[in-house]
Queue: 2 jobs
Job 1
Amino acid sequence: MAKKSFLVYSPPRNQVLNKAKYGPMWINYIGPQIHVNVASAPLLEQVMRQEGKYPVRNDMDLWKEHRDLQGLTYGPFTTEGESWYRLRQALNQRMLKPADAALYTNALNEVVDDFMVRLNQLRAESTLGDHVPDIAHQFYFFALEAICYILFEKRIGCLERSIPQDTKAFVRSVGFMFQNSLYATFLPKWTRPLLPYWRRYLDGWNTIFSFGKKLIDQKLEEIEAQLQAGGPEEPRISGYLHFLLTSGQLSPREAEGSLPELLMAGVDTTSNTLTWALYHLSKNPEIQAALHEEVVGMVPAGRVPQYKDLAHMPLLKAVLKETLRLYPVVPVNSRVITDKEIEVGGFLFPKNTQFVLCHYVVSRDPSIFPEPDRFQPQRWLRKNQTDALKGQHPFGSVPFGYGVRGCLGRRIAELEMQLLLTRLIQQYEVTLAPETGEVTSVARIVLVPNKKVGLRFLQRQG
Ligand code: HEM
């Protein structure tokens, strides 16, 4: 039987074709297993609202095999049932609520400051004096630096001119692990000792986990030193890892198993969303001009945005919502309802049916989003909502998933993207570099551009 990776394989264009051919629900087979694809907001809602206390996404066997071989504890993606629930209760602290995310504003602004310096260097070094040939690559390093700083409270040098060796090795190993996981998914197990992919897959993970362990060990030493200095009566509770360890939410061993999974989830997601947002803003100068007006109205040039400013920037939020509607980074997700039979679309399905949630095609449904392929952030603004939009379906676009198993990092992802976008638009007019042309999306675990997105960052006056 073919193994499933994090996301059940169903490329966006297949979703579109299959929905056109079969309607909003169809089945397909992966080996002997039946997948029930749901591709309309009401059906999605029916599946998700019937999930139990411990929702199951899919089996993640391949990731678990690595953890088992290395004697690591499972993280939020790999754990199930009650132990997942307990882990999520711990990890949700200081992460899930908007007020939790607000705590990281200064840290994120520090990383944004450094990104702006790095961007300026890159522009200055380009022939045109304002050109960045592959913005997704730069956002990748921004996102990695940001999530590491939040999780481990450590800067890892991604935005320096010369990136430290162990950070480079980490980045390489993430690519390596994902590439080789494809072979591991589709090739039979007996080929593992014969072909190099299995060793490479495990090595990729090992580097990822030892990178995390090193940062956790450093934190433990710091905590120990603080306790020695200040005594056990006054532990200093600051960032995420510090809080989790000192408040007893997680043991060091649990942190070692979980934090690398958070790290993996927090990089491609935000970096690709930022790339798509700037791509569309550069193709829609009037929307960019309106956003610029909103941004400098709240945060004039030279000022750094604060958390409270963001509440007054509805267009900024709408730009990100619209970006995620068009390009849900996770274009397909899944749920297995393990505890009961469920009825969906008038059919009764047995326990343990695997439902594939076709988010990409759902969020481009013209009956919910008129002119669905157009980038129109205004559709999310309350004052512009026509009668059609007032009836917008709550499951029309759910890029962060749903319910207790929904995205853990949603609030920090939103904050991180809002803070960076504010600064970029405040300082630059962004245009598409001529070599870029039309960009479409392809699914590589997450939804990414099919080619490099080159942009020009033209300095604004004043
Ligand atoms: C644009 C940014 C992001 C998007 C669109 C996104 C989207 C998603 C989606 C769709 C899921 C599956 C939810 C479900 O099954 O209902 C998910 C899960 C998850 N995300 Fe995110 N994510 C983003 C950023 C982040 C960041 C920055 C972190 C870092 C902490 C993160 C951590 C996680 C974790 C740990 C899970 C698994 C939760 C669980 O199974 O309990 N994500 N994300």
Job 2
Amino acid sequence: MKVIVVGSSHGGYETVRGILAAHPETEIQWYEKGDFISFLSCGMQLYLEGVVKDVNTVRYATAEGMRAQGVHVFVRQEIASVDANAHTVTVKNLVDNTTRTESYDKLVLSAGAVPFTLPVPGNDLKNIYAMRGRDWAKKLKLKTVDPDLQNVVVIGGGYIGVEAAEVFAKAGKHVTLIDMIPRVLGLYLDEEFTDTLTDTMKANNIYPATGQAIKQFNGKDGAVTSVVTDQGEYPAELVIQAAGIKANTDWLKDTLKLDDHGLIEINDYLETSAPDVYAVGDATLVPFAPTGGHSRIALATNARRQGRIAAKNVLGDKTKMPAVSGASALSVFDYHFASVGVKAGTADGLGINTQSVFVTDTVQPPFVTEDAGNVPVYFKLTYAPEDGRILGGQIMSKRDVTANINAISLAIQGHMTLDDLAYADFFFQPGFDRPWNIINVAAQQALLNK
Ligand SMILES: Cc1cc2nc3c(=O)[nH]c(=O)nc-3n(C[C@H](O)[C@H](O)[C@H](O)COP(=O)(O)OP(=O)(O)OC[C@H]3O[C@@H](n4cnc5c(N)ncnc54)[C@H](O)[C@@H]3O)c2cc1C
């Protein structure tokens, strides 16, 4: 069997890996239009902050390594179109500008997404960057050490925007973080958490300008000088656009069914509208466990899970994509947070009723002092008012207690309720936590409130 895999990031890599692991004799052609396979944007912040020194190591696989395992790797070769009836693709070689046709038995698309460009005057000025992929990583790295750069505006207060803002604040720049929604990280965390994080950002040279819409970019001699919103003008010698992504699917619109956002329509088995064509990753929706519907959750975790399922199905299985809950985590200076599922702040948009309980505690028993690391932990548990089914959780502390959110993710996936969590057995060791884990405490409190 001959399988063609398009895209070398998370979804593409996992598909290739999955096929190789189960059936190494499969003929796999793996295409990447960029000049580098398997760059991981997830590692960009670590690279930009100097924790990881070499941009070329931020990857899962090398072309040579995969070729040694029998995979036919094609770099700087773009799949320009798909003829689903003929089971062929047109390959454009971007080095010599030639094209050729390749046949496939199965085709897996992990073409991902590109950063959204704001459609406002001045968006073609120089020094308006994005934070995705190796090329931008290299350009941004140069800016972190540019002594002439003083003012950075980051557009988008999601986790990518916050990562970018932190990189440049740590590099000594004045950073303005603009978002349309009223709170930075508002899609990930409720107010009890974002208030603290916003104060932390301000104390570290990041100035949130939220609830504002971008109107235009001003420039001089072709380079950006400021960003104008409906409420103010912010100086900027560098702008980083992190205001969402656009599915990289324009080239597929005559071949596959796409939704209104350009996302590829897939079924539970990751099959597209064309026979033997599968799609995974940021250009698709994922089944969302808390609601039972489908959501757009652009995470590597989802792309990897889909890649694994696509590999199985390409090889003849009929495995359904399991529902996910969108667990994610981030550090903002000395705070670590994680969240999963539904928040009080996102429930209305999803059309569901929720109740939440917010609890604070210290990480360890009271006899351990704060000097010894016994800092506060903040936790919010969100559940269905009618039956106490767990729908989401958020946690934050200066100690890294984020892994608790993985337990909430399991609780969502397993349809657990407050009763299940109230007395669930979690370990106690005074060096780590308290006899009642914060999840127990929150569930017990929620049961009292009911
Ligand atoms: C800064 C940043 C930090 C992130 N951090 C995290 C994190 O910590 N945890 C997490 O879970 N997620 C994180 N993500 C999200 C994660 O990176 C994405 O969800 C993931 O990369 C999606 O993978 P993908 O395979 O769908 O596509 P993409 O990563 O978008 O890659 C698609 C690839 O396909 C190639 N391609 C596209 N079209 C063609 C074509 N026609 N022919 C050939 N090649 C093509 C592209 O060049 C690209 O290399 C982060 C993202 C960013 C930008």
